[in-house]
């Protein structure tokens, strides 16, 4: 952190142009962020190899004599299976922008585009076979296409995992950002983009638009500038992306002129609007007479998707309880040996629409834990409604292991089976007062979950305000795909034992 005490203030230099030649070859090379070039080359090799491997497995699995071109030569068949079809995959993936650096390494768009390309490949193969009256084995072709799609998705997942590991450990392969806006807005965006180092968004400077006096003496994590030409500043600090924050994007004509100035410079322009907690599926741009209006839809908290979620919850909870029964028995024995008393701990919590229920957990504390709580209140390490201590003396050794591994939460599958909880949702909070005030009440619009955005974003290491913000974000932007993403991220968080105590 550094204090903002002085600035190098220069009169803004006018842009040298407000547009560039329309030749596609006149674009400038990116000065800093070139990580995507070797990464895309690796993806091309992985995708080609995945498609070729799927064809080989299909041929080996089914009889080659009945697998394809019965009246064609074997060499032509192999040319199609191992050369033309994989090349077709690459071309259609490229056409669906599955190699666009904007979608690589972050978010679900990359995988959506791969799936879309898979559908296009299947349609193309079907059309060509129909148009040429080629006799194909449906099993072989279907196996080759579906296998290629699954292998390509797996390869990209592994590549993304490696990319995130490089970003976390070495700090490379990221986008160097210059944040433009007022200092509070820029710092808010800084906090958001640096929360996940794997995303590769690295702010390197802040250019404030409300004058240096508003920021004098404040601590900032990166250098702060004022009164500078933004493009010149980006080149000076080695940036490759400009992020316009909050109200800075509302200045009439300024954003358009900045976009003109950046044309052909190799610098990306992104806008972080004030709707920071509204996700993409709820935001739609509908231009009216040349005026782009940003429409924000209501959150979807009912309908067929919610019915599917409830059904999946019940089925998964029932299967989980059956499969985990031996583990439950072993944990119960360990608890009774560690501290005689009940195996389960049941506590009133507030659930959907304010209804209270008793949550099921494996007991991790000594039986007199509640009596000892009064003497530990002044040692609370959180700033919210929950009491948390990293070294809580009321937790016995086996209980500490259960908490670190999150095994103590497994009995909540009973609550999920009974419809009191969901697999994914805001964590249920204690019902001491039986009510919540202010924004916190909005958490009650959905069923509480065994895991949630709070848990995969830091768990007990987060402040109360940040935890509430994440829970409200989930409520406002819920979807089945988001639930699956959180479940997948939960696996990594549990294995890493991050923020569990």
TrEMBL record:
Topology relative to the membrane: Multi-pass membrane protein
Enzyme Commission designation: 2.7.8.-
Disordered, as annotated region: 1-21
Keyword flag tRNA processing: no
Transmembrane domains' residue ranges: 39-59, 75-94, 114-133, 139-159, 315-337
Superkingdom field: Bacteria
InterPro entries (alphabetical): Bact_transf (IPR003362), EPS_sugar_tfrase (IPR017475)
Any one GO MF annotation of this record: transferase activity
Subcellular localization: Membrane
Pfam families xrefs: Bac_transf, CoA_binding_3
Ranges where the Bacterial sugar transferase domain occurs: 309-495
Keyword field: Membrane, Transferase, Transmembrane, Transmembrane helix
NCBIfam families linked to this entry: EPS_sugtrans (TIGR03025)
Family: Belongs to the bacterial sugar transferase family.
This protein's name: Sugar transferase
Organism listed in the record: Micromonospora sicca
Upper taxonomic lineage: Bacteria, Bacillati, Actinomycetota, Actinomycetes, Micromonosporales
